[in-house]
Write a structure and sequence with these properties.
Belongs to the HAD-like hydrolase superfamily. CbbY/CbbZ/Gph/YieH family. Keywords: Carbohydrate metabolism, Hydrolase, Magnesium, Metal-binding. By secondary structure, the chain is an alpha/beta fold. The protein has 2 domains: 137 residues, HAD superfamily/HAD-like (Rossmann fold); 66 residues. It has 8 helices and 6 strands, in the order βααααβαβαβαββα. A 6-stranded parallel β-sheet has the order 3-2-1-4-5-6, with helices on both faces. The protein starts with 5 loop residues before the first strand and ends in a 9-residue tail after the last helix.
């Protein structure tokens, strides 16, 4: 086992609670096109990729509306409202602690570039993050390993010198397949996140895991 030289952060649900805004914007744009989603339970599309959301809602939307135009409207509205976003408890403190300890940090997201950039601006952590990998930067997003492999390659580190912080099975699967250590975050006490090696419920518990000295003789 090697010392952790870099951390690759997921963003949505890990550093920032963006799901309520994603849902609000989806409802808002659909209503503009005459589609009422009030019969659907809250968080009905949580974690669902937008192409699958489109397929589920297409029959409710005007026949002439194209998927690309619908998605562009959602992204545009999300970016307009991104200033409402707040970091999850402990997120900024942990990023500062790791940066001060010399740990390199990047972000790896399954969102497109414009959404990733809006989220990072809302977090105000661009000076602490080396770079970010978005869905637009890879051929195959999470749960495939490509996003995390791309991050390791760009940093010039071996994947086993990095730890990924994830809140989803797809993300944890991606990072594990890339060869990284994976720490899960379940802030609402949702149990263990597979396939993470450890799941924490407070981000403030993370530095102890990342900065923990290796056992004598471990390399």
């Amino acid at each position: 086992m090697k010392a952790i030289r870099a951390v690759a952060w997921d963003i949505d649900g890990t550093l920032i609670d963006s799901e309520p805004l994603h849902e609000a914007v989806l409802v808002e744009v659909c209503e503009l096109h005459g589609a009422d989603l009030s019969d659907l339970p809250q968080n009905h599309f949580r974690g669902v990729h937008m192409p699958d959301v489109w397929k589920a809602l297409k029959s409710r939307l005007p026949e002439g509306l194209e998927e690309a135009a619908w998605l562009d409207a959602i992204v545009e509205r999300y970016i307009e409202r991104a200033g409402e976003l707040q970091p999850l408890p402990g997120a900024i403190e942990v990023i500062e602690t790791l940066a001060d300890a010399g740990v390199r940090q990047v972000c790896v997201s399954n969102s497109n570039r414009s959404v990733v950039d809006a989220n990072l601006r809302a977090l105000a952590i661009l000076d602490r993050i080396d770079f970010s990998i978005s869905l637009d930067d890879v051929v195959a997003g999470k749960p495939e390993p490509e996003p995390y492999l791309a991050a390791a390659q760009r940093l010039g580190f071996s994947p086993d010198e990095m730890a990924a912080i994830e809140d989803s099975v797809a993300g944890a699967t991606s990072a594990r397949a890339a060869g990284m250590r994976v720490f899960g975050i379940a802030p609402h006490g949702d149990g263990h996140l597979e396939p993470a090696e450890t799941t924490i419920h407070r981000l403030l518990d993370l530095p102890e895991l990342i900065l923990r000295p290796l056992p004598l003789g471990a390399r």
